[in-house]
Amino acid sequence: MAGNKGRGRAAYTFNIEAVGFSRGEKLPDVVLKPPPLFPDTDYKPVPLKTGEGEDYMLALKQESRETMKRMPYFIETPEGKQ
């Protein structure tokens, strides 16, 4: 029969020194407020490139997307009723 099945000493011990605290040291305070919904944006996004080359690539992308939708293999997902 196996001994120590759920009684007595714990099977696994937790070493608090491995986390970075020593015995008797005060643990950090508990934060009781929720985190902010959106973090501060210190960095602004880079503006999009504009020009003839970018406009050409956008037109190609839109044309290929429309071509794919017109193909007989394109399967549309049915919209769910609300």
What does this structure look like?
With 82 residues, the chain is mostly helical. The chain is built from one helix and no strands. The chain has one helix at residues 52-70. The protein starts with 51 loop residues before the first helix and ends in a 12-residue tail after the last helix. The model has no long low-confidence stretch (mean pLDDT 80).
**Total strand count, please?**
0
H/I helix tally? 1
How much beta, percentage-wise?
A: under 5%
Indicate the low-confidence ranges by residue numbers. none
Protein name: DNA-directed RNA polymerase III subunit RPC7
Subcellular location: Nucleus
InterPro entries: RNA_pol_III_Rpc31 (IPR024661)
Keywords: Nucleus
Give a short overview.
InterPro entries: RNA_pol_III_Rpc31. The protein is an all-alpha fold. The protein contains 1 helix and no strands.
Helix-strand layout with pairing:
Layout: H1 52-70
Task: Supply the key terms.
23% helix, elongated, mainly alpha, 82 residues
